């Protein structure tokens, strides 16, 4: 399977099941559709919407697009292409925006993949974190090039000074690019992570976790943002020189725009990177959980 076909095929995570007959094929229209279906669980205040606590806690634990679409239809049994009020939307995370956009692109004939990394366009300067944990979609152009798309900022939902369908690569760093910058001394690892009222999660360990998750997403295993295994689950003192060398190799491959499916499969076969039968999910609101994944969900 070449890179075109590899990224055109749905994963068990992105498979939407039955696709609406009137789903548009244009990426810009798809981004607007995703923005109409989802609200980030932490952006209720941005829209003046009081997010129900159970939705903040539970929606984003849905691992699959099929589950996201089921919840949407339960909240309003109407065509997905119709306008939805905020309380009729799925309350997810940036990963859910990226995954749903990826699913719709694949379903309408555009190769796409989910990317995990760091954005510079959400942080307000009140935290040392200037590169915030974030997920976007990468889609293939007819000429074979790839562009980053962020459906979460589509339709002016957030004030950004770039085209959401062509996010500059210095505004969103794929995790491998962030890792390479930190390792080379060109960026401060403490500027990468998640700013939280209870204490920021940041540092090279966080970048390392996202390198592993980004490789998994490129391998069409689009995990939740708080899932960890292998090199993403090691405590920093346990990371060996061999581990660092492997992470450097992964970062070099995944930071390049032309990422081949063959290289992804080769790296993903390493047991330190491959998704095992049991992973640890450090959920934000529901505690730490051990999750068993069937073989079909491990790539």
From TrEMBL:
<feature type="domain" description="Transglutaminase-like">
    <location>
        <begin position="91"/>
        <end position="151"/>
    </location>
</feature>
<feature type="region of interest" description="Disordered">
    <location>
        <begin position="1"/>
        <end position="24"/>
    </location>
</feature>
<dbReference type="InterPro" id="IPR038765">
    <property type="entry name" value="Papain-like_cys_pep_sf"/>
</dbReference>
<protein>
    <submittedName>
        <fullName>Transglutaminase domain-containing protein</fullName>
    </submittedName>
</protein>
<dbReference type="Pfam" id="PF01841">
    <property type="entry name" value="Transglut_core"/>
</dbReference>
<dbReference type="InterPro" id="IPR002931">
    <property type="entry name" value="Transglutaminase-like"/>
</dbReference>
